């Protein structure tokens, strides 16, 4: 255009500046800014807005603010405020975005839906929820609540950091729910761990005749992985094939993760092997999958293959391989990977130190683990001290256990698991005074142990069991088989050390044996950590009946076969 002697005008610059912003061509954008000044177009609202937006998207926030301040006309234009607010939001400068909006209201400049779409997303942190609720009031008073994009933005805010019932109430009030509305709820629930609500929402969505897209299905598959809902995950897999979405890499990564975390590692590996466009997320999913199943050697092999393929690991990939080394007892290999992180310009975080503490603890190197924690350049979190506390249970080290417990409850005073873990350490050592002390602490803090539950999926139906549960229709037969198994276990000399009643995983195992064939693995999902007595019981049963049991507890998978567990009695 310039070579042909044509001069750009106020209609030309916005398009070119938008392209610079999309491609992050900041230098070219600055040259265009000079051209704008030469042509005298700087006072045109759309040109000015485009310049502000370009600087914001290139992360030159000082330039954007200076441009806004230099032109008095900007202070009266909603579009200029909107561009700068959106820029602050994009660059995570939350306080500046809020301050600018307050200045906008103070100067009497009107806001619109675009303003709110730039501002509400900064309120997805709990610390900003109060301001977000104030924005909600402004939106209702101005009538913008009828704008579907604004309503969806509010939904995302509440579902991420507000009370779930408020998000649900707002969702119910939306008159016309399009796919984006359902996705806002499903994605928000998923990111906050409300996985049961995700599956409920998915079922409700199907009953309303709304067809999901890949965003919906990724959220559903992630929730299936978290809950161990294998049947629903398989149904989603079939739907993906039927709707022609099998080539979507995000969905294939989610399927690998889902199958691995639901106990079907063979299917997870099959999907991974068929992928021709694997990325870092694909490799991390399969590495973590093998790691949680105790197959650390395979995880290490896959990690090395990933490096050879030219893919650079990130922090999550290192967590996966370190955790795999920990679960498999590959101490020296894990320490080598930890030291290699800096070669990739990665600084270890608490999650990496937690894996290494667990790694050293498994090897019985408790003093080294404690020294590592004390030498950390960052503050250790609850998971780091919790890993040390868990190691103390295996090696019955009460002194370090008490130190680790004291530190961990400073950070997570309401985490009931740590109190139970210390109580179990005292119990193994037959230290009654310590057990009583922990019980008093729990009573004073009004802490109650979460009820344990286990379930088995059979022919598309979930069978749930609680401790001492007799509500199942097959309860009489289940308890009969359980009694026979316990008698056989006693004959092997492996009777329970503690009178713990009938835990849920025992009932689930008996149910699985009652209702499946000899060539079928029994898969049990449990919400809590498997106790030592049940662990010994399931090992013995696997030897007696020549069957494999796969149990997923709150920490990992246990593969019981021929009287041996894949965790090597460390979990």
Q: Provide the low-confidence segments as ranges.
A: none
**Total strands:** 6
- Enumerate the strands of the largest sheet in spatial order, edge to edge or round the barrel: 2-1-3-4-5-6
State the end-to-end CA separation: 69 Å
Characteristic terms for this protein:
571 residues; mainly alpha; 6-stranded mixed β-sheet; 6 strands; elongated
In short:
The chain is mostly helical and 571 residues long. The protein contains 29 helices and six strands. It has a six-stranded mixed β-sheet, with helices on one face.
Please describe the topology of this protein:
Blueprint: H1 13-22, H2 26-39, H3 45-57, H4 61-70, H5 78-90, H6 94-106, H7 113-119, H8 129-142, H9 148-161, H10 164-173, H11 179-191, H12 195-207, H13 214-227, H14 230-242, H15 249-261, H16 265-274, H17 280-292, H18 296-308, H19 315-328, H20 331-340, H21 350-362, H22 366-374, H23 382-395, H24 398-411, H25 416-428, H26 432-444, E1 453-458, E2 461-466, H27 475-491, H28 504-515, E3 522-526, H29 532-545, E4 549-552, E5 557-561, E6 564-565
Parallel strand pairs: 3-4
Antiparallel strand pairs: 1-2, 1-3, 4-5, 5-6
Helix pairs in contact: 1-2, 1-3, 2-3, 3-4, 3-5, 4-5, 5-6, 5-7, 8-9, 9-10, 9-11, 10-11, 11-12, 11-13, 12-13, 13-14, 13-15, 14-15, 15-16, 15-17, 16-17, 17-18, 17-19, 18-19, 19-20, 19-21, 20-21, 21-22, 21-23, 22-23, 23-24, 23-25, 24-25, 25-26, 27-28, 27-29
